[in-house]
Amino acid sequence: MKNGHSFGRTAGIETICVHAGVEPEATTGAIMTPIFQTSTYVQSAPGEHKGYDYSRGGNPTRTALEAALAALERAKHGISFASGLAAVHAIAQLLNPGDHVLVCDDVYGGTGRLFRRLFAKYAIDFEFVDMRNPDALKSLLRPKTRLVWIETPTNPLLRIVDIRAAAEIAKAKGAWTVVDNTFASPIFQQPLNLGADIVLHSTTKYIGGHSDLVGGALMTNDESLAEQLRFIQFAGGAINAPQECFILLRSIKTLALRMQRHHENACVVAQELNQLSAFSEVIFPGLESHPQHALARQQMSGYSGMVSARLKGSFDDVKKFVSRLKVFSLAESLGGVESLVNHPETMTHASVPPDHRKKIGIDSGLLRFSVGIETAHDLVDDIRQALS
User: Fold this and answer.
1) Three-class SS of residue 173?
2) Last residue of a domain, one of 252, 282, 317
3) Alpha-carbon gap, residue 83 to 76, rounded angstroms
């Protein structure tokens, strides 16, 4: 199989998206990786097989996908899962009772729920903290801190965490750094190059890109971590089906092109929202008004398609606004080619404790826009007509 290093370090990301992980099928020359829709494989003798014995442990379609995923982050190892939360779950299973974990306070609601509701009962101490100040982060690490969990841009407030600084601080204390790179995608941010140990993606989002599957992925250069995570994948069994692997492989081929359009459209939408008096705040790392715009420019090559904004008025005003949208659809998730709007307080982050939501600024007026690849002026016109 091809991998990210076959093209050399100078290969463009577009080339990697189109070619990495796949090669013509040996028997027929088919340019697309076949869907190996099988659960088991015939062995020539007990314990003697051609590299595959049972599809939970490995499947040729998933092997191709994992090579492509590794190439996207220029990593040595890519490991694919049935969902983004299955990938989060796998990392959490690296921990032991008594371990301390620092978690970005503005984190995906499902990640926080998994930590608070499932793993905290195993005597693992999850501490949710603001990671925007590296010096403050340094003071929070303890002797038992094993993991620093970062999202950047964060969900849904689009805060930026300095990956390089955080990774250096964690490494000095013997802790791993995990970066959820779902919002930026590998096209616009590559955390392993900035010192992270593991990169996480919900492949449901931008990598899948068409709102037609659920998946997750982990990428790493650490041999020991990769070995442990592959064992967790095999033993736990939270894997993609071959059909989903095939769809993801197809989607990766257009990832770079899609991300550029998401980025361009989000810039237009953010600038438009910023000019509308109906919104008290517009949050987008690409705006110079964003407090961490300079850091975003430094560690990202683009700003992706996520824009958050606060609508003035009551919750009833919010409900009226979203009900009038025609191009944007009210739905959870993000990263598809179609534009979505989400109300974090009642939707994706409803499981976050109310006092924590209030503390970090997830209120009834906050909306999160996932800007799709439609014609930009249609998106702007849709927002304007919904306000009128």
Assistant:
1) coil
2) 252
3) 21
Looking at 180, 197, 310, 368, which residue is catalytic? 180
CA atoms within 13 A on the CB side of 108: 23
Query: Which position among 62, 108, 258, 303 bears the catalytic label?
Result: 108
Check residue 319 and give left, alpha or beta (phi > 0: left; psi -120 to 50: alpha): alpha
Residue 173 designated active-site = no
Do 72 and 204 belong to one domain? yes
Per the annotation, the verdict on 303 as an active-site residue is no
At residue 4, the pLDDT reads 43
Catalytic residue check, 54? no
Cβ-proximal residues to 143 (8 Å cutoff; 6+ apart), any chain: none
Q: Rounded to an integer, what distance in angstroms lies between the CA atom of residue 63 and that of residue 66?
A: 5
CB 128 within 8 A of CB 103: yes
Please tell me the predicted confidence (pLDDT) of residue 1: 40
Q: Which residues pair with 179 in a beta bridge?
A: 150, 199
Question: Encoding tokens for residue 218?
Answer: 């982990």
**N-terminal to C-terminal alpha carbon distance within the chain:** 54
* Cβ–Cβ under 8 Å, residues 256 and 14: yes
Chain-wide mean pLDDT for the chain?
Answer: 95
Q: Which of the following is catalytic: 41, 53, 56, 319? A: 56
Instruction: Name the domain boundary from 217, 252, 287.
Output: 252
Tell me: do 267 and 224 sit in the same domain.
no
CA angle 16, 22, 24 (to 5 degrees): 130
Residues of the chain where predicted confidence (pLDDT) is lower than 70 = 1-9
Question: What was the pLDDT predicted at 9?
Answer: 63
Active site residue 76: no
Domain that holds residue 208: 13-252
Q: Which of 62, 132, 159, 205 is catalytic?
A: 205
